[in-house]
Records
---
Amino acid sequence: MKDLIPVVYAVLTAIFWGSYGPVLHESRAYLKSPFKPYLLIGIAYLVWGIGGGIIGMLYKKDDFSLTAFTGPGGRWGLAAGTLGAWGALTLTLAMFSGGKPYIVMPIVFGGAVTVSALVSVWKESEHTSVNPMLWVGVAGIVVCAAIVAYFTPTAPPPAKTNAATQATAGHQSPS
């Protein structure tokens, strides 16, 4: 059972992050701005990140002293947070520039899996060899992301009406 706990958390992460794009799209539509939601995302990260971090540290009885956050671990933590914030910003920019969640999100998450694998290959290249099936998997992610993006159902665009139709709509001839 203990082996399933990371899988459960991974599935929950996929659900949360998979919902992120469509929810961000709704927020942008209501706020009529791509950057107001980004500011709110930052506030949410601040609240949940600090709150969750404190709760987790209390649970583990971690050291809260300032020196506990210095050194390489602190720098790597700030780097991870910065990459996450930049990811949220570039996702906001993707949507701002006209991207639709059903196109952007498969690229983001298929790309994230691929980048994670490539970083691991780079970091571990001196210690192990790369199984060729990794490259098959990378190609499969590209194909699958394209299929998901292409076949995701979307609402049809609103019907366009021309000026002549609008002008005569109110003037019906008697029959």
---
Amino acid sequence: MDKKNSGRHKRSTDHSEGRLRIGGILKGLADLVEKLDDLAEAGEVSKTGEILGGAHEVKGIYGYSIKVGLGDEKPRVEPFGNIRKDTKTGRTVVQEVREPVVDVFEEEDHVLVTAEMPGISTEDVQLEVQDDLLTISAERGDKKYRKEVQLPESFAREKMRVSSNNGVVEIKCTKSH
């Protein structure tokens, strides 16, 4: 191995089983997150990637967003995509449903939730709310998304308005005064 490539993680595909061997990549993310935490003083850092598979046309998307400078909170790492660790087997799997990048902004008269969902329009979005837990799901063609979001307070579904523009879904939750 030459010096340029030493220390880099390689991905490989087991074509006989159609499974991705990405455990090393995900394991290395923890170290990367620590390094980014040291570098970031305020703002947001994010990284995305795509993993393509062999004969079974597997398409995995994984990314994370590191949010810092949010008051006195510690930096938060929020993963997104469709690559998860199966809790029963411990293996890394590529799921059909993607988890979008989501941000929550608390304003004086409303809470704004934004979700990055390329290929989705307003009509494709379904919302479920239970107390302060909002579940966003959407589907169009082969694009499927789902995310549970903790809101800063409870909202009735009737107080939520959905809009979408260029793959960014916005949910405006009006506060009761």
---
Amino acid sequence: MGKELIQPDIGLVFWTILIFVALAWLLKRFAWKPILAIIDAREKSIREALEESKRAREAAEEALARNRELVAQARGESARIVAEGQKEAERMRSEILAKAKTDSAAVLEQGRRQIEFETKQAVADLKGTVVQVALDAAGKLISASLDDARHRRLVEEYLDELPNLKESH
């Protein structure tokens, strides 16, 4: 028994070769072309997928470059807008300060005029009161009967001369 497995039988070898050749011929005739077509189609689809992925990668790199450029432009634009805003704020601040100075000068001038007017009015009122008091005092002292208009005129002339008398001394 052990020898039979080691020694080849001619009939078995013949039929094995015949079946192998027939199977190879059948495979070549019917299966080889479809298998090669499937392999070629698979190779073509893989090649197309690789090319498509390469195109997609290039498109993605271009989009990334454009995005980086847009980000750089946006940063530049935002810096420009901030600078313009700062300039505008400084301009508005200067305008507000100038207007405040103008307004305060106008208010001071108006106050000065008001004080001057009220001072003149108070001096006029005081002159009138002083004239009246002087007339009353002079009338009592002199007990002479000068008319009221003449007394008033004399006292007013004297009061008008008072500032000149102060300046000369």
